[in-house]
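Field reference: "sequence" (input) and "structure" (output). Example, tRNA (guanine(37)-N(1))-methyltransferase Trm5b:
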Amino acid sequence: MTLAVKVPLKEGEIVRRRLIELGALDNTYKIKREGNFLLIPVKFPVKGFEVVEAELEQVSRRPNSYREIVNVPQELRRFLPTSFDIIGNIAIIEIPEELKGYAKEIGRAIVEVHKNVKAVYMKGSKIEGEYRTRELIHIAGENITETIHRENGIRLKLDVAKVYFSPRLATERMRVFKMAQEGEVVFDMFAGVGPFSILLAKKAELVFACDINPWAIKYLEENIKLNKVNNVVPILGDSREIEVKADRIIMNLPKYAHEFLEHAISCINDGGVIHYYGFGPEGDPYGWHLERIRELANKFGVKVEVLGKRVIRNYAPRQYNIAIDFRVSF
Ligand SMILES: C[S@@+](CC[C@H](N)C(=O)[O-])C[C@H]1O[C@@H](n2cnc3c(N)ncnc32)[C@H](O)[C@@H]1O
């Protein structure tokens, strides 16, 4: 037996919406028709409605999406985000202004549907600052920010509040791994907690992994142990000040990578490959970056061969996160 609001058939939809607004609708039971009435399952007695005890059928199918069970007013449902990131057992979601008042409902629904998710955070700012982190606002589940994320066969321990990490780049990291050759020396200029470095360590002879964020380096050191790799050298500092020679350089700092190009070219070995990342506008997202690369190639008197370029993902409206791979020959 469960509690249900009994309403005339023709008022059913209006009452259902009202119950959603009140957070009273119990989605775990099905609505039942009884003659000219509907029995709408509720979580608690609701003032102003006739509440009865009823035998209702339980909803047996496990929902596929939090959107199927979340209690938000019908007219706002169209604003519900269709995707969010899951990093280890932590979900991070961008909630539009219209739904900010329902953030906790959304968080609760995510925890309910995704059994592996233990904590949910709402994005509280854009990615900003030198460390490329953002403010996170806790909306559901446990108040934890440290987790272990699995991707491409490696484990990455990290704190989502203290370091940059995006699970959306997993395919890009695998693509770079596939391009890498056995026995190379790699310079990961903006290593973070090591998703490129640790993966590439499986092929490379040596990986220099630099980051300016002490938390990133702390987790990188833990991840080196966690993944039992012995050829990654963590370096805390500004990668412009690190003088190494490498066959492959990864420049995963899209917002500022162009400022580091000169140093990258000075670190690359003859015939080496640079994986450059940037942001660019719709239409020609590569043009500005390719010009910078060619300018510097002229300045250094080296040859540049573009091996590939692609859009990785949308970054903002009409702005793309792009990648350019190029070979440098002396
Ligand atoms: C976009 S994140 C990429 C992290 C990592 N490659 C990944 O895929 O998760 C850029 C990283 O560059 C680091 N960073 C920013 N400026 C730097 C600098 N001058 N030298 C070294 N690292 C820097 C930030 O702390 C941040 O961890």
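Residues 2-54 form a domain with the Alpha-Beta Plaits fold (CATH 3.30.70.2580).
The chain has a mean pLDDT of 96.
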